[in-house]
Give the backbone structure.
Amino acid sequence: MIKYVIKNVILVVITVAVTIVAIWLPGDLLRREDEAELSVIKDVPAQYYSGPSEAIIKNASRQLTNEERLQLITGTWESTVERVGESACELTEFGIKTITINRVENLYVKGLYPTSLSGDFDSWYTWSAIPYRALDTTFQSYAAIFWDVRFTKFDGSEYHRFIVTESGDILYADMSIGLGVEADSEVRQNLNSFEPRMSNCLYLINYYGEVSNTYNNGYTKVTVHDDKVTAYRVASATNEEKEKLDTTYASRFVDGFDGIEPDQIFSLMQTSNGDNSSTLKYLVSSQKTDNGYTLVLLPE
């Protein structure tokens, strides 16, 4: 009997010991592994780097000046260009279409575009607008949106394409005449008689304000906006500037563009608040052929 009791006690003790070990041992092993992991610094896999959120990019980008946005798009501020959805933009497709029509009307009045698109637009043209974003490569937090806006006349006689920033700057304007359009047609006559007034190329940049003064022999126009002064100087490009110009660089923000052989090249210099250290310089080129007209703005 005593042997039987001792045997049962031993079995109970063994069972309790096994149960305690089964409960304690996994927890102790996990604790040791956690301590070991916490004491080691490891590289985070690349897929965990998501970069700033879209909200952060939008908020940071609102702080940029118009000049800084142009630098991002044209590449003088190093950036990458990608197609984006409308949610990344401040404007809608309809909004940028309206801005583009108004800006083209302004260019037409200033002698920089051969035709106006504002009259009976909805009856005569179909259109599309595709947004792109230039995002800085260093912080990936600052972005500038620009749009590829295209208009097609109902009969295929005219095609128009513009690269437009959300501030209304025109970086590229192109008109082409469709196949089979007669030589005596109105659109061809308008194009043939058109001579671009490149001395007005500062109007490609949609500044807000009024011309308040001219100086430096009339080359510089000063505008006022939010109590800030911006000066523009327009002049024919020098031979050295013409030799350095590579219009194919516009393919950075004009999809499929392979360059032009300009008829005219003008230099456009912009300074803010009279500070020469903040000078931006662009070269504006135009080309007219029997079937089209192209205008493009590039950094020097």
